[in-house]
Design the sequence.
């Protein structure tokens, strides 16, 4: 299928008159993550009225648009062509063409293309708007049974175990420096068991939930410890779209080893003074003691 499609047989309302002057140059439209009935009325109306819909994959979006009788022209905008297409798109917006941006599913930009285009639209002084709607990560958070706030959305971690474990170790270091949050991740089904095993090894025993195929016929939310979930999915290969929710770290008394780990993580991005203050607040240890140790670590590693 070509990157651009039209449906001349479908009558379509358009933006005109005073509406055209106030209509945003670009509207970010959230689309269903599974059940096509989850498209809001305002989202459907907007997609029908804009001149062009920018899609991550026009073939995927065609199913949604046909289901709602929307015949607006579509163009592909994905990670491989976004940078090259931005100048022409911004120029078209300056000329009055009105665009909507959708991803294959869910909220645009959340682990999907579009960020660079949004930055360009803002930089050009053009009007930007959005229509809220489905988001897999937030739905998974609410279904997980884990603390809903604060939470940290991490998207996809690196696919290879070494880089993935390094990313998880950074999160663990941040937790030792005071971060307390429920973590949200996206993961591919063929990597899920390995991801859970790495998370169990690096983050330690804690509750988690695997949310799969949300809003679809085979929706599943499986809860347990990281180790239990890793064992289950190692024996039962999953399918579909997956979001993993991992509970916050359990508060523990700071030892000399955890103090050093927390300080090293903080010193990677802070001054000695700021790192000591942050870790002292997180651990409850005396500021003078933490500062002295931070200064010593900084000098040793320097």
Sequence:
């Amino acid at each position: 299928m070509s990157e651009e499609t039209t449906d001349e047989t479908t009558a379509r309302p358009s933006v005109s008159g005073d509406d055209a002057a106030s209509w945003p140059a670009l509207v970010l439209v959230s689309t269903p993550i599974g059940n096509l009935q989850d498209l809001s009325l305002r989202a459907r109306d907007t997609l029908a009225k804009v001149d062009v819909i920018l899609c991550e994959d026009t073939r995927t979006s065609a199913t949604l648009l046909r289901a709602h009788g929307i015949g607006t022209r579509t163009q592909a905008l994905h990670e491989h062509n976004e940078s090259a297409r931005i100048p022409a798109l911004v120029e078209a917006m300056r000329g009055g063409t009105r665009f909507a941006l959708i991803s294959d599913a869910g909220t645009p930009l959340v682990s999907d293309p579009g960020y660079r285009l949004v930055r360009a639209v803002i930089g050009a002084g053009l009007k930007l708007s959005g229509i809220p709607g489905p988001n897999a990560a937030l739905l998974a958070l609410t279904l997980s049974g884990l603390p809903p706030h604060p939470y940290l959305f991490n998207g996809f971690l690196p696919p290879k175990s070494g880089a993935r474990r390094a990313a998880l170790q950074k999160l663990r270091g941040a937790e030792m420096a005071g971060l307390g949050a429920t973590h949200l991740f996206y993961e591919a089904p063929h990597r899920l068991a390995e991801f859970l095993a790495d998370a169990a090894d690096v983050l330690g025993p804690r509750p988690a939930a695997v949310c799969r195929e949300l809003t679809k016929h085979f929706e599943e939310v499986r809860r347990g410890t990281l180790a239990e979930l890793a064992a289950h999915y190692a024996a039962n290969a999953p399918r579909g779209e997956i979001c993993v929710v991992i509970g916050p770290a359990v508060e523990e008394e700071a030892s000399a080893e955890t103090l050093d780990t927390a300080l090293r993580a903080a010193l990677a991005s802070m001054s000695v003074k700021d790192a000591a203050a942050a870790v002292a607040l997180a651990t409850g240890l005396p500021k003078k003691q933490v500062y002295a140790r931070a200064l010593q670590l900084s000098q040793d590693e320097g």
The domain at 4-134 is CATH 3.40.1010.10 (Cobalt-precorrin-4 Transmethylase; domain 1).
